[in-house]
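Predict the assembly for these two chains.
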Amino acid sequence: SQTIHQWPATLVQPVGSPLSLECTVEGTSNPNLYWYRQAAGRGLQLLFYSVGIGQISSEVPQNLSASRPQDRQFILSSKKLLLSDSGFYLCAWSADTDQPQHFGDGTRLSIL
Amino acid sequence: LAKTTQPISMDSYEGQEVNITCSHNNIATNDYITWYQQFPSQGPRFIIQGYKTKVTNEVASLFIPADRKSSTLSLPRVSLSDTAVYYCLVGTEGSGTYKYIFGTGTRLKVLA
């Protein structure tokens, strides 16, 4: 069966520090991968999606970036975190559709 | 881009049927409508997906009128554990690819 893993579950970082969140999918090949952010009490905002290795589409211009070094690995990064980067970050994948089907458990990021 | 509109919140009592409607006037012609359930500090979970008319699975039913400009998620006999935020998701064509925008969701509170 397919599974999706995100880590870490929680993260507290100072303003200006770098960020690296990792997401991996198991049990499937060539999935579409997504990064979403959810601010407290708000809906989900699509940040990046990828249809293949090295293919990244950015939905929201900001100080975040994404990379897909392997077929089932999706990484969200930042060189310098801002206070506004706080939120709940969710990775998702889908197989034969452009809609996210399965979400990870998320990373709660707090910026101090 | 397509936007979805849902009621912000709803209250219900255990054992009642709950219907949550989502408006999506600009849904793409060939796109599906998907509903998700999200508990606090967890990723959204796929509930049901449909294209037109009615779809039913073990947890919910989805009603879609002929014009597909709205959809209604029906939860039969809700329990306290159904308290969650429910999102509908549709896509719209843009720049040759689908764009999927989550709305703010409906916060369902089931009361004893």
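The interface with chain A takes residues 32, 34, 41-46, 49, 87, 89, 91, 97-105 of chain B (CB under 8 Å). DSSP finds no helices and ten strands in chain B.
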